[in-house]
Amino acid sequence: MHKISAIIPTSNEAHNINEVLESVKFADEILIVDSFSTDKTLEIASTYNCRIIQREYHTAASQKNWAIPQATHEWILLLDADERVTPLLQKEIFEVLNQPETELAEAYWIGRINHFMGKRVKYSGWQNDKVIRLFRKSKCRYDEKMVHEEIIADGRVGMLKNKLLHYTYRDIDQYISKINRYAALQAVDYDKKTGMLTPYHFVVKPLWGFFKHFILFGGFLDGVVGLTIAKLQSYNIFMRYVKLWLLRKNRK
To answer: Based on the domain organization, do 56 and 102 belong to the same domain?
Structure first.
């Protein structure tokens, strides 16, 4: 079987690092890419058989693109610290990488089972969530977006059947802080493709975001969790354009 390097970017992930490392112990190499954590992340990681490198954080894409060439093996399994590989997914990865070279894709989508506020989210627009996490080092890189970066593969992309577990929520204050941080970063990306800001951006788009996630995507079936997700999605859209308005105002 092709050997695997597991890459895990970290920044103060003491609450996650043990579980994610346990889930990738099968990898031939584990590479921690840390942006100078100040909690016990590295102390915990050092108890595992892994290699730790550090770099100041700029964006997720640049951090990952810097780390990928430093992996020892051609096949990369890249996880965020809040993701977990299940035994069934591990088995499928082994089966895929045991195939003849001619049958392998250059990268593979992996679905995610999301958990939020202590509950599995079955609807709310998260039911079809997927990310490219298994890929060839020589054929793939992340696009240089400020947030929501994704792999650009030079060749065919396959799809695995089994899914990652994703625990995106720590507490509500932390999540709102994350939204505000992402909104500021998204504003930079949207500045390049958004014309004059109007009530459409501040009113219609946030309302549509709520309606889409709560009604069209079935968020109401997730109960209070679904309502919270829809409200936060609406808030995220609103703050994105507030941050963009401020970005342009401060640039004058």
So the answer is: yes
Range of the domain at 241: 172-251
pLDDT tens profile 215-234: 999 999 999 999 999 999 99
The two beta strands, 151-153 and 140-142, are antiparallel
Note whether 110 and 178 are same-domain residues. Answer: no
Q: How many domains does the chain have?
A: 2
User: Percent helix, strand, coil in the chain (nearest 5)?
Assistant: 45, 20, 35
Does one domain contain both 109 and 191? no
Q: Alpha-carbon distance 57 to 54, whole Å? A: 9
Q: How is 215-226 classified by DSSP, letter by letter?
A: IIT-GGGGHHHH
CA distance 42 to 33: 10
Residues 5, 77: Cα–Cα separation, whole Å: 6
- Examine the domain organization and report whether 207 and 150 are in the same domain: no
- In tens, the pLDDT along 150-193 reads 999 999 999 999 999 999 888 899 899 999 999 999 999 999 99
Phi, psi of 215, deg, nearest 5: -100, -60
102: tokens are 């001619």
Q: Write down the pTM of the prediction.
A: 0.92
- Taking CA atoms, 85 is separated from 77, 111, 250, in Å, by 10, 11, 44
